[in-house]
């Protein structure tokens, strides 16, 4: 199976996604930015940076992508998030749905 990020505090994902929409887009997302700009102090949020990369919200250099901007500025962020998950995390469902991953 593909190398997927591990997140222990999955209940906090919504809080992070809400912060992404309500705060200015930083030049780069780091643990310090998550704590100071997003005001998310828990160390659990540091583990979510790889998830944001997997979802294509961040580049390999932790720079917000066009997908991040689309999510932040969308009038229908749930739809954007659904498309992002479907596109970037299909490996999660491939065995269950018997879909080949290219």
Describe the 3D structure.
The chain is an all-alpha fold and 102 residues long. The chain has one domain (10-97). The chain is built from six helices and no strands. Helix 4 (66-73) runs antiparallel to helix 5 (77-88). The longest helix is centred in the last third of the chain and has 12 residues, at 77-88. The radius of gyration is 14 Å and the shape is globular. The mean pLDDT is 84.
Helix count from the secondary structure assignment:
6
Taken as a percent bin, the fraction of beta residues is under 5%
State the distance separating the first and last CA atoms: 13 Å
Order of helices and strands: HHHHHH
What is the count of distinct domains?
Answer: 1
Q: What is the typical, i.e. mean, pLDDT?
A: 84
List the helices and strands and how they pair.
Layout: H1 13-22, H2 31-36, H3 49-54, H4 66-73, H5 77-88, H6 91-97
Helix pairs in contact: 4-5
